[in-house]
Amino acid sequence: LRRLAPRTHAWEGEDVGVTALLTLERCMMPVLLTLFDSPKRWEYATEMLTKQLPTILAPIDAITQAGALTLPRTERLAHAALRVLLRVIHSPGEQRPETTRAWRKHVARLFGARGFFGGLTGSTLPLWAAVVNAWLGLETPKAATALLLSGKFSAPAGLFASRAAEADAHADLLRRLSFALWAGEHNQYVGALQGMLLERLVAGFKFGLGAGVGPRAAAVGWVVQAQALLCVRVLAVRVAPEHLTALWPIAMAELQRVLLAPATAPPPLLLAACQLIDTLLCVLPDDFSSFGWMFVPAAPVAGGGAAAAGASADFAALLAPLARMEPAGDAAADA
Q1: Can you tell me the mean pLDDT for 305-334?
Q2: What is the distance between the alpha carbons of residues 244 and 193, in angstroms, rounded to a whole number?
Q3: CA distance linking residue 315 with residue 309, whole number of Å
Q4: How far apart are CA 196 and CA 146, in angstroms?
Q5: CA-to-CA separations, 191 to 110, 176, 180, in angstroms, rounded
Q6: Are the beta carbons of 129 and 121 closer than 8 angstroms?
């Protein structure tokens, strides 16, 4: 316990509550495993753990209910509480069903809170990623994806909700799905791509579009489309290129729709499209698939100059409308 002394790195501020939580992180599970070492006696340890977890997770509850950090002390308490939760999840007794039941409902409740993303910080983000991945890892990848797509952990939209509320609900679902994909292992959700993830992405891209869509739905549809582009970025990072062949035509069609008419697209949607291209250029290998010409113009080679020139022309035509746009400040100055 010497590392818990005041003004050390583990102290994280002169706060008794933080010190108590860090002490629990180091001592609680080893003590429980020592005192209740037999299967019969472990029931008492599980009961004790079940009673104490709501108190330990109270700082995180306060943040998710408020939707933002109110005091620096709250962030330190939440960080320490997440460390205790991770120690419980990864303890030697984690394989016991009783222990899993003690923490999984709390993780599901906190992840589904409306203020979950508002309370994330640089220090709590990696801890939350480990917690959410451990929680979803209790299910198969397809079952975990179906659980996320069910809407139980996203902002609810009632039967008579406005189009704006419905768009926020769809965007929130895609955002939580993106977080789960990012928190998972590489290629963890490959089995859920076809028929689940791709269909949800297509629905997100089409939200607010179509002949029968009213002006209100069209005006708020970009919120969902931007989150769908973010989900494609996460898939490009967390899934190997050979598994994403069916994704490129979908992504390319959306990029063309946005970038070929930049004057009519909201700035956040334009930014999301440019961020997707930037991510793909960074993470995908030069020869990742036959769809490489969509993103990178091929260099002229002997015997293939015409094809390369056509690919370069296609790519230049995609970005030309965006390059011709003038910032609002420059246009006003010229006037």
Answers
A1: 52
A2: 8
A3: 10
A4: 8
A5: 27, 19, 15
A6: no
